[in-house]
Amino acid sequence: MPLVEAIREAIIGGEFVPNQRLVEADLSTQFDASRASVRSALLELANEGLVERIQNRGARVRAVSLDEAVEISEVRMVLEGLCAAHAAAAVTGVEIRELRAIGASMREAVAEGDLLGYSSLNQELHRRVREIGGQRTASRLLERLRGQNVRHQFRLAMHPGRPAVSLPEHLAIIEAICTHDADAAEAAARKHLRSVIDTLREVDRTGQEPRPR
Known about the structure:
mainly alpha, Four Helix Bundle (Hemerythrin (Met), subunit A), 5% strand, DNA-binding, GntR_C, DNA-binding transcription factor activity, GntR family transcriptional regulator, DNA binding
């Protein structure tokens, strides 16, 4: 795996947390890479918005405020809607069965109270919708935005009662795509992201910092 991708995945996966210092020497040892390669990777990740460079202090994982998380979600609302509409137009029979299987697994995860499993399926669904839609520019932008917003996404996934709210929203997206209804798919994706924004604000008001169980 390329170094920049490995560090990116460590940030997105929560191995490195917001505001954590990223020491070149430590990263060089951890990823068995040269200091120059690490420096280049951190510069690239800074351009993506995942890392910030602090003058005379090196680099750290960039923390994203609530206001920025909301802005990111507003942009996602447009892009996710676009990808869902494209997916509805392009989806094949095999892909329809795959999407319905993901939906069934999401129902099962919610019924069993498996929050982490549901969160993983949530990410898988959004990824497959992007891939089926084939809108590569939107997909690249969404992947970058997902990385920037990862901490808020985790807090959202762990928020009590959230899966019961988001499950029917995801099922509506699946149904619209599987019935080739591009307008309904776009509307369902946008509705889901509006719900995400509302819940982000709610989580921030409660001050909760949930942890996986």
